[in-house]
Amino acid sequence: MTGFLFPGQGAQYVGMGRSLCERFPAARAVFDRANKLLGFDLAKICFDGPAEELTKTDISQPAILTCSISALAAMGNPPAAAAAGLSLGEYTALVGAGAIDFDQAVPLVHDRGRYMQEACDLRPGTMASIIALDRAKVEQAIHEASPAGTVAIANINCPGQIVISGEVAAVEKACEIAKQLGAKMAIKLNVAGAFHSPLMQPARVKLVERLRSVEIREPGFIVVSNVTGLPIQTPGEICDHLARQVTSPVLWEDSMRHLLGMGIREFAEIGPGKVLAGLMKRIEPAATVKNIDGAETL
Questions:
Q1: 143 is catalytic
Q2: In b/e form, how buried is each residue of 38-71, taking b as 16+ CB within 10 angstroms?
Q3: Is residue 50 reached through a cis peptide bond, with omega within 30 degrees of 0 on the bond before it?
């Protein structure tokens, strides 16, 4: 069987989902449902933009989830051997596995995006990608930069690519130190704020409360958590991990190695973009990743 991978925020682009909806009524029905749940025309923003609107945190999150679930619907909602999603994509994975209903997930991630943006406004921050430096040296750079402010690892994406997040001065200092320690590059990212860092604590507090209103069930297939890189199964565990996720690093490489350790070598990246396929090539070149962004089916 195939492992499903679901993209996170940043994968969005104007026009996403259009071809699926033109060819598959089941895909269009998913977008129509999201429009009703949100009370505005999410499909129009996805298909026609403007890009500035689609990029907003509280719009891009339900947009990407809806686009991915519409692709699953076009495929006939097949089961997976296991699944994982990058940050926001973990919610999509849980919907695909039947742990959270789509009708509850769409407004939930809309609120999640709003909470995260509010946290960004409250404590401005930034993120940076550290290229070609191992985890121990990135942690050393963070430790040495900590007098300048809050900074933490946000994503461990693949060998040679780790993202850091925090207050601007601290991130800039950590980038300088990382280069001194041998990083090939340290690139500041164009993001709204310090996602997956302690600066997101206000969002986590609100999300904990919001998750109490969501019915969560055991997933129908294995879903691997961003927080631990290991499967999550019980409703309580899922709720806890989703709340922790906004302030914790995304252990994507660990998550992929767990799926690979299960013997999975064929994957489908379901939703916009091909970022996760690129990361998998760095983690396990022998694995294959098929992109289900257009009208392909497994």
A1: no
A2: beeebbebbbeeeeeebbbbbbbbbbbbbbbbbb
A3: yes
Long-range contacts from 52-55, C-beta under 8 angstroms, 24+ separation: 54/12, 54/13, 54/14, 55/12
Q: Catalytic site residue 196?
A: yes
The residue annotated as part of the active site, out of 129, 165, 196, 255, is 196
Q: What whole-number distance in Å separates Cα of residue 244 and Cα of residue 81? A: 25
Which residues, 6 or more positions from 159, have their beta carbon under 8 angstroms from its beta carbon?
253, 282, 283
Give dist(CA 6, CA 87) in Å, integer. Answer: 9
User: 178 is written with which tokens?
Assistant: 């990382």
SS3 state at 262? coil
Can you say whether the dihedral through the CA atoms of 188, 121, 66, 216 is positive or negative? Answer: positive
pLDDT tens for the chain, 298 residues long, are: 899 999 999 999 999 999 999 999 999 999 999 999 999 999 999 999 999 999 999 999 999 999 999 999 999 999 999 999 999 999 999 999 999 999 999 999 999 999 999 999 999 999 999 999 999 999 999 999 999 999 999 999 999 999 999 999 999 999 999 999 999 999 999 898 999 999 999 999 999 999 999 999 999 999 999 999 999 999 999 999 999 999 999 999 999 999 999 999 999 999 999 999 999 999 999 999 999 875 454 4
Residue count of the chain: 298
Catalytic residue among 60, 70, 87, 197: 87
Question: CA-to-CA distance for 270 and 57, rounded, in angstroms?
Answer: 20
d(CA 149, CA 27): 46
Partners of 166 in the beta sheet? 126, 151
